[in-house]
Design a protein that fits this description.
Structural class of chain B: mainly alpha
Largest sheet of chain B: 2 strands, antiparallel
Number of helices of chain B: 11
Number of strands of chain A: 10
Strand order of the largest sheet of chain B: 1-2
Number of helices of chain A: 10
Helix content of chain B: over 70%
CATH topology of chain A: Rossmann fold
CATH superfamily of the largest domain in chain B: MetI-like
Radius of gyration of chain B: 23 Å
Strand order of the largest sheet of chain A: 6-7-8-3-9-10
CATH architecture of the largest domain in chain B: Orthogonal Bundle
Order of helices and strands of chain B: HHEEHHHHHHHHH
Largest interface: A-B, 29 and 20 residues
CATH class of the largest domain in chain B: Mainly Alpha
Largest sheet of chain A: 6 strands, mixed
Oligomer: heterodimer
Distance between the termini of chain A: 33 Å
Strand content of chain B: under 5%
Radius of gyration of chain A: 18 Å
């Protein structure tokens, strides 16, 4: 099943043409890795899927993005962002307690019942493999957690609003190898229930977790194929060059 | 090496001297006012009306008047200022017009207070026919402190990291929910600082209430917001310059009470601010 259909997508920020004629499909329950050097438009691409780009005053777009059968322009923005969750590059807990961080989104979507919230928080923290580490200190500030724990808290917070798609924007860029492994484990398990789009600067990470890999360069989608293929027999010379670390 | 060490010492000396030049006069003012004013403070001074042409009795009506005026000004200016600040920092687009508006607001804070007094006289006293009254005075003081409240609130709102807003929006919260639950609670300490500054200014100003609210001598308490009142800064001016043979300690006593009143009102705001800061978890 196709989750996202993207047709001839062009994005500008002021005079900067950030994405050029991008067309692709994202399948349900896959992990799609998006790689490319900085300024290649991969984060812009990601932030398009939940319309976070629209916060920028100078943003303009042309083309079509469909979530399942619906043009995302026609979906209520709050509802779209509930369906398409996001985990940011840096662990960004809200200035609240651990419990309230996870409960925040659920509360904002109208749940007030304390029992329901408590259950949801526990479930989400378990799904993000953080429950055992924090279950005795849910009322402490989220900023007291380590970086890796904070990032898993952010994942739990995203899971709590029951999204269909989760966008990861270089989620491990600030983490040590062990925390990275934990986050990656979580992602692979999450794939069973969610569609995952993973933007990463770490080519090896893309190879480890992604089933398909997309390579962006200067705002263009250069190649999109099964990860094995992209890494062993890329069609385009530029993909080959980037993967071998010749530029970028 | 030695030269730069000496240069550093000289720099430190001048920096220290500058600090001293600021601290000493302020300290002296406080010491003198306490020293000369404290003997005048007793129950009668605080609770009685002025008697014998303000040469005896107390200053109770002036205390009450100032409390009314300042409370009225805050009740009027804080909500409006806060809403304007939220609009300017969260909703308005960044273009020439909004930048001009922001600049104008900052500059309004520097307008001499007597100009506000004249404005209040024209608008509230005469045009709206409120007469010289608590409501005219409060509104005038409120308009005077609006720029301070808007500017400091805006800065407080803008100092909340942008990433918090993005996170909240990315979870599907609406813009208003984001402001209400994430931005405002974290900006609250800064907003209260602005309120404290405004409060102090409103309590101490004479010129804006001179034409709009303050009575020269009124030995009774107001019955409604449309009554005139006595006010501490104006009363201080009157007994210092307009009435002969007032005891020195009565003047300093009045100044002492004015200071104490401002300090007390600030203290309330500071305690609320402290509560918010403690809740803040980053």
């Amino acid at each position: 099943m196709v989750k996202f259909t993207i047709k001839e997508l062009n994005i500008w920020f002021g005079h900067v043409h950030a994405l050029k004629q991008v067309s692709m499909e994202i399948r349900a329950n896959e992990i799609l890795s998006v790689i490319g050097p900085s300024n290649s438009g991969k984060t812009t691409f990601l932030r398009m899927l939940n319309r976070l780009n629209a916060l920028n005053q100078n943003f303009r777009m042309a083309g079509l993005i469909k979530l399942e059968q619906e043009d995302i322009k026609n979906i209520d923005t709050e509802l779209l962002r509930k369906r398409v969750g996001m985990v940011f590059a840096l662990p960004l807990p809200l200035p609240l307690s651990i419990f309230e961080n996870v409960a925040y989104g659920v509360r904002m979507h109208g749940t007030k019942n304390k029992k329901v919230l408590t259950k949801k928080v526990e479930e989400s923290l378990k799904e993000a493999y953080l429950w055992e580490e924090v279950k005795d200190r849910l009322n402490e500030s989220a900023f007291k957690l380590s970086g890796g724990q904070q990032q898993r808290l952010c994942i739990a917070r995203t899971l709590a609003v029951e999204p269909e798609v989760i966008l990861f924007d270089e989620p491990c860029s600030g983490l040590d190898p062990i925390s990275t492994a934990k986050v990656e484990d979580a992602m692979v398990k999450l794939k069973e229930k969610y569609t995952i789009v993973l933007v990463t600067n770490n080519v090896k990470q893309a190879a480890r977790v992604g089933e398909r890999t997309a390579f962006f360069l200067s705002g263009e989608l250069i190649e999109l194929d099964k990860t094995d293929k992209v890494f062993t027999a890329p069609k385009d010379k530029r993909t080959d060059g980037y993967i071998r670390g010749k530029f970028g | 090496m030695r030269n730069s060490y000496r240069a550093q010492n000289i720099a430190f000396f001048f920096l220290f001297l500058a600090t001293l030049l600021i601290v000493v006069p302020v300290g002296l003012i406080v010491v003198i006012i306490i020293q000369k004013g404290l003997p005048a403070i007793n129950w009668q001074f605080l609770s009685d009306i002025p008697r014998q042409g303000m040469r005896a009795g107390g200053i109770f009506p002036a205390i009450v008047g100032t409390v009314y005026l300042v409370s009225g000004a805050i009740i009027f200016a804080l909500p409006i200022g806060l809403l304007a600040a939220i609009y300017l920092s969260e909703y308005s687009k960044d273009n020439l017009l909004t930048r001009l508006i922001k600049l104008a607001i900052v500059n309004l804070a520097g307008v001499p207070s007597v100009v506000y007094g004249l404005f209040g006289l024209a608008l509230f006293v005469i045009f709206f026919r409120f007469g010289a009254s608590i409501i005219s005075g409060s509104l005038t003081l409120g308009i005077m402190i609006l720029p301070v409240i808007i500017t400091t609130s805006r800065e407080a709102l803008e100092s909340v990291p942008y990433s918090f807003r993005e996170v909240s929006l990315s979870l599907g919260a609406s813009k208003w929910q984001t402001i209400r639950h994430i931005v405002l609670p974290n900006a609250m300490p800064g907003i209260l600082t602005g309120t404290i500054l405004g409060l102090g200014r409103a309590a101490g100003e004479t010129a804006p209430i001179l034409f709009t609210a303050a009575a020269f001598y009124l030995p009774q308490l107001p019955n409604s917001v449309f009554d005139q009142v006595m006010a501490l800064p104006y009363h201080l001016y009157v007994i210092s310059t307009q009435v002969p043979n007032v005891e020195e300690k009565a003047r300093y006593g009045t100044a002492f009470i004015l200071l104490a009143l401002v300090l007390f009102m600030n203290l309330v705001a500071i305690i609320i601010r402290y509560k918010f800061r403690k809740k803040k978890k980053w």
